[in-house]
Amino acid sequence: MMLDSSAQDLLFQNARTPRRWTTRPVEAETLRRLYDMVCLGPTSGNCCPARFIFITGSEGREKLRPALSAGNINRVMGAPVIAIVAHDPLFFEQLPYLAPGEELRSWFATDVGLSEETAFRNGTLQGGYMIMAARALGLDVLPVSGFDETTVEEAFLAETGWRANFLLCLGYGDTDGLAARAPRLSFEEACRLL
After folding, report:
1. Distance (Å, rounded) from C-alpha 68 to C-alpha 151?
2. 147-188 pLDDT tens trace
3. Does domain 16-174 have CATH number 3.40.109.10?
4. What is the DSSP string of 17-29?
5. Contact, 22 vs 139, CB < 8 A?
């Protein structure tokens, strides 16, 4: 079974990164559906280390503002929802529940390097799933890495111990005047068949 061409267009061919946002709100139920899709994506050993903070109100936005690079302030602050994509360095504490019978917890609890690498890699992967799930739900997405992660962690994650990875702005983009899609590398430039 394969997605039809209109679904592929929604996810890839016609999907664009917005520079501005409409005022149409994103409902809380949409964010719940979004997470319900994201959490089903595969991670190694079903470790599921990603954690998400959805900023929807003005108080949260103002806490985030000082962390943003100057070039991102208007684009980020205008989004109906700003998601902090983070990961839990102690994700392995959930493994007895997430992967019962596998006895994976001890692998990560005794190897800090392995647990940090696994949390970052799989948390990033789950952030990628969020981009695709958001598009599948009709949302536009702007990924952002131009921010100070220490400021974000102190303002939003200090009590959790989670680590910030990147931001995702979610909403309904204003596509008026959007520039042509930037070029991509060809298959021959980016891939090798061995």
Report:
1. 9
2. 999 999 999 999 999 999 999 999 999 988 888 899 999 999
3. yes
4. --SSB-SPPPPHH
5. no
Asked if residues 64 and 82 have their Cβ atoms less than 8 Å apart, the reply is: yes
The structural domains of the chain, with segments of one domain joined by +, span: 16-174
Q: Full-prediction pTM beyond 0.70?
A: yes
CA dist., res. 164 & res. 153, Å (int): 6
Query: Which among 131, 155, 132, 2 is positioned nearest to 67, based on CA atoms?
Result: 155
Give 11's DSSP letter: I
Distance in angstroms (rounded) separating the CA atoms of residues 156 and 86: 10
Q: Are 167 and 82 in contact (CB under 8 A)?
A: yes
Distance separating alpha carbons of residues 171 and 19, to the nearest angstrom: 11
Which tokens in the block code for residue 22?
Answer: 């409409």
> How many Å apart are CA 9 and CA 185, to the nearest integer?
19
